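step 3/5: co-fold with adenosine-5'-triphosphate
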Amino acid sequence: MSDSETQAADAELGLSNPSGKSLEHENVEVGEPKMRARDVDVFYGDKKAIDSVSIDIHTEFVTAFIGPSGCGKSTFLRALNRMNDTIPSAKVTGCIELDGEDIYASGMDVVQLRARVGMVFQKPNPFPKSIYENIAYGPKIHGLVESKTDLDEIVEKSLRRAGLWEEVKDRLEDSGTALSGGQQQRLCIARAIAVEPEVILMDEPCSALDPIATAKIEELIDELRGRYGIVIVTHSMQQAARVSQRTAFFHLGNMVEYGHTSDIFTNPREKRTQDYITGRYG
Ligand SMILES: Nc1ncnc2c1ncn2[C@@H]1O[C@H](COP(=O)(O)OP(=O)(O)OP(=O)(O)O)[C@@H](O)[C@H]1O
Ligand SMILES: [Mg+2]
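step 4/5: write tokens
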């Protein structure tokens, strides 16, 4: 497609911001999307779990995926860093780009891609290694460091950014699994940050956490906004409203509606969205 055709298609999808003016409630200009998905289908065997989804992911704001259980949120999220490749029956079609580069192209280095597009899961999954090693592992295997001093610096910086440094600085040699659930989840976020990703995908990152730990993660997400493209899947509409500026509502494999979070929750265009946010199903 030519640039003007792409723009026209984006406008039709409601994805573009042709005027380039400041976002409502936010004093930021919207640049090129970090990731761009077009007409993405995902199949498990013959069963279509995602049907022709198109969406842009920006670094300027957090994007929330909401929708009832089984609608395909995790499936689509996994398509964004090729985690579905690890499921033998899964097949992805359509186009997904990171900075304009097709992530499903045959030359794409998938290990590198997953460092650029990191993932945080529902259940915190620290490696059974020390807190220090949990963070240091990625930068080491990706060759981001030359010396122990570099590595120490990355470990400290990542833990600070994840809001965990003060709590763990005196026990870096303790096992990551010895931390509380909320601390483990921040450790996993620190681990994702340590390899300098461009996008962080979070699949219900707070669902195993208490309200205080949840509040910490939400604060952290807000602090990370602008630096990384962030996508969060959540079953909590309050959470989506608190942490995201854009929301996509999924239902039965379709992305029914995408827009400003405030609009999705107060003035949705689609009846199915309205039914979901008012608790008629899900
Ligand atoms: N590994 C798999 N093999 C086969 N089918 C799968 C697999 N993973 C998911 N599915 C199916 O794909 C559909 C979407 O599932 P998915 O896990 O993406 O939903 P979800 O929106 O994340 O749900 P939840 O909110 O419960 O996490 C469901 O019908 C599910 O049964
Ligand atoms: Mg899921």
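step 5/5: annotate
Residues 44, 49, 67, 69-75, 87, 89 surround adenosine-5'-triphosphate (ligand 1) (CB under 6 Å).
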